């Protein structure tokens, strides 16, 4: 699918990854097009699924989430029904920012936020350990974020 993108399409996508609120006029100027062809290309990129959505990136620290943890979840029994229930329940928990089914020693890796370590401990005890199929959890706490929300490579 990405082979259909030319240099200008990639420039549009890169500009929007940096500033999703960019006006069409500014976007057109940034990529060297007039406004109408730029708007047409943008509409095509959206309709072809290259742009999933537009959203605001919120500040975790300003909202009081001082802890970021990566949680390695393991199942003892690998049952499709249990995994489906686990995934459905995970999607309903707002403090779980992402969940990936992975290969290796863990079955899933989750990125979780909490206000502080006490809040994180309570979440682990009351919510994580009671999710369907979970037999083991291991946490890695982020000490410092080096890079966040990087855009996709478009070269």
From TrEMBL:
GO terms classed as biological process: regulation of DNA-templated transcription; response to amino acid
Pfam families listed in its UniProt record: AsnC_trans_reg (PF01037), HTH_24 (PF13412)
CDD domains in UniProt: HTH_ARSR
PROSITE patterns hit by this protein: HTH_ASNC_2 (PS50956)
Transmembrane feature ranges: 57-77
Keyword entries, A-Z: DNA-binding, Membrane, Transcription, Transcription regulation, Transmembrane, Transmembrane helix
Gene Ontology CC, one term: cytosol
InterPro entries in alphabetical order: ArsR-like_HTH, AsnC-type_HTH_dom, Dimeric_a/b-barrel, Tscrpt_reg_AsnC-like, Tscrpt_reg_AsnC/Lrp_C, WH-like_DNA-bd_sf, WH_DNA-bd_sf
UniProt KW Transcription keyword: yes
Sequence ranges assigned to domain HTH asnC-type in this UniProt record: 5-66
One annotated GO molecular function: sequence-specific DNA binding
Protein name: DNA-binding transcriptional activator DecR
Organism of provenance: Paraburkholderia ultramafica
Gene coding for it: decR_1
